[in-house]
Design goal:
53% of the residues lie in helices and 19% in strands. By secondary structure, it is α+β, with helices and mostly antiparallel strands. The protein has one domain: CorA soluble domain-like (Beta Polymerase, domain 2), CATH 3.30.460. Helix 6 packs parallel to helix 10. The longest helix has 49 residues. It is elongated, with a radius of gyration of 26 Å.
């Protein structure tokens, strides 16, 4: 599958494709977007960007007739996860996550969706959505539904990438169990527990808002999300809920582990102090 846009497009444009009513694809240039959308033939346009420049966003705002406020948010990374409705379009911000050197690297994906277009903007540490497009193109009958299926595929991919991180942190906590129950104080054990909890707290801030986003896609924005796609977004909502519950459980376990480690070390030190000889009477403090 050719997953690159035509050579005349900027390097930050990962793909610019028009999908016909039957799900078949053809690469188009940025100048062709408005021409494709002007013909009401059931097709839609999917554009993928990575760290786009402001001039390119200006161009795409003109081609898609995007709202000024949504484009202003898209120019700036570090947006909170959210969903905003603008007339007949949606603007969604989702935080992505991946493990890099045992720490979570966070990125952002800004998504514009209208009745006949889908545009994804990746910022920072974010995996390519090429596998998402490849998966969607294998499901022609679903891709023919329109951009809502592409939106589902992107959000599902983001949530699925949370799961390996949760599993990895659970494994790290299990590996620390021997050190947690040691009688001697080890500063690196406490530091590692604190680091794990801090990373999971940041991850919860990324995951929790997706419950509201996917919930709104199943209940509120019915003018853009048809009945056939609401079941798919409910499935993403369930996955998000499972990840969020797992993150909360791990955070509670880490808090308990830090408390247990401190209590065991305190008891061990108390035993050591009581076993130490009192020393000569002259060492004792006079009344």
């Amino acid at each position: 599958m050719n997953d690159t846009a035509p050579p005349q497009t900027p390097a930050c444009v990962v793909n610019c494709v028009a999908y016909a009513r039957d799900g078949s694809r053809r690469d188009i240039g940025l100048d062709d977007i408005s021409d494709v959308l002007a013909v009401d033939d059931g097709s839609f346009v999917w554009v993928g960007l990575f760290n786009p420049e402001d001039q390119l966003l200006d161009k795409l705002q003109e081609e898609f007739c995007l709202h000024d406020l949504a484009v202003e948010d898209a120019r700036n990374a570090h947006q909170r996860p959210k969903i905003e409705a603008y007339s007949d379009s949606l603007f969604i911000v989702a935080h992505t996550a991946q493990l890099v050197d045992e720490k979570i690297a966070f990125g952002e994906t800004h998504i514009f969706m209208g009745p006949r277009y889908l545009m994804t903007l990746r910022h920072g540490a974010s995996l390519s959505y090429a596998p998402v497009r490849a998966r969607a193109e294998r499901e022609n009958e679903l891709l023919a539904i329109g951009p809502t299926y592409g939106l589902y595929a992107v959000l599902d991919y983001i949530v699925d990438n949370y799961l390996p991180i949760v599993d990895e942190f659970r494994d790290q906590l299990n590996a620390l169990e021997k050190d947690i129950f040691a009688d001697t104080f080890r500063r690196d054990t406490v530091v590692r527990l604190y680091d794990l909890k801090r990373e999971l707290t940041r991850m919860r801030l990324a995951v929790a808002p997706l419950q509201d986003i996917t919930g709104q896609l199943t209940r509120v924005h019915t003018q853009l999300v048809g009945e056939e796609m609401r079941l798919y977004f409910r499935d993403v909502f369930d996955h998000t809920l499972r990840v969020n519950d797992a993150v909360d459980t791990l955070r509670e376990m880490l808090t308990a582990a830090m408390s247990v480690n401190l209590a065991l070390v305190t008891v061990a030190q108390a035993k050591w102090s009581s076993a130490w000889p009192a020393g000569p009477a002259c060492w004792r403090r006079r009344p």
